[in-house]
Amino acid sequence: DARVTQTPRHKVTEMGQEVTMRCQPILGHNTVFWYRQTMMQGLELLAYFRNRAPLDDSGMPKDRFSAEMPDATLATLKIQPSEPRDSAVYFCASGPRGRVEVEQEKLFFGSGTQLSVL
Amino acid sequence: RKEVEQDPGPFNVPEGATVAFNCTYSNSASQSFFWYRQDCRKEPKLLMSVYSSGNEDGRFTAQLNRASQYISLLIRDSKLSDSATYLCVVSPSGTYKYIFGTGTRLKVLA
Question: What residue of B is the nearest CA neighbor of A97?
Answer without folding.
Answer: B96
